Amino acid sequence: MQGESNKFFTNSFIMLFFILNSLEFTMEAFSLLTDEEIVNLLEDIQTVKNNDDRVFDCYDYIIFDALKILDNVSNNDIKERILMLIKNLYHYIFDNCNNKDGIDYFYKRINYFQVIKRFREYDSGEIEELKTIYNNCGDDINAKIGIDILLGDKKDFDVLYSELNDDMKDIIATWPILNLI
Questions:
Q1: Phi, psi (5° rounding) for residue 112?
Q2: For the purposes of burial, counting CB atoms within 10 Å of the CB of 165, is it exposed (0-12), middle (13-18) or buried (19 or more)?
């Protein structure tokens, strides 16, 4: 069955076309790919050079779902390669995106920091940036929850999480950042 499903994605540019042309495209199909196919797909995605913020949002969705898959990949070499590709893709986003203010950019930074957390501990500058985002994200409880997880502040996370309604708790349960608790 897995081989049959993968026929559609033998050329990952087909998948990339759908991703870049529909923000509604879900990456559930990602789970049908083998570890090597995931690496190949991310390499193909990384080759698309476009400074359109819509494309950057697509990249962010791709990375978000790649992190979900990554946490279940057992091969450490593949895991490292995927992490490096994701990290490089985020560097491209941050170097080229037009809008570096506001909550959408904060979310990209928070997601980037969860990638770093999978590599290593934060340095003092990164901790300060996370604290700055926390202080500047206003009332956005999702951003604050993500930062509490990244900084290991379980007590604040629990307080904020308890304030959420059940629907929001269900959404947060799908976040790959929860694997870092």
A1: -60, -40
A2: exposed
Provide the angle, in degrees to the nearest 10, between the axes of the packed helices 76-96 and 53-70.
160
* Confidence (pTM): 0.69
Q: Positive or negative CA dihedral for 28, 110, 171, 19? A: negative
Q: What is the pLDDT of residues 52-91, one digit of tens each?
A: 566 666 677 777 777 777 777 777 777 777 777 777 778 7
Rounded distance, CA 41 to CA 9, Å? 9
d(CA 117, CA 127): 11
* Helix extents (H) in 7-97: 12-21, 35-47, 53-70, 76-96
CB 97 within 8 A of CB 53: yes
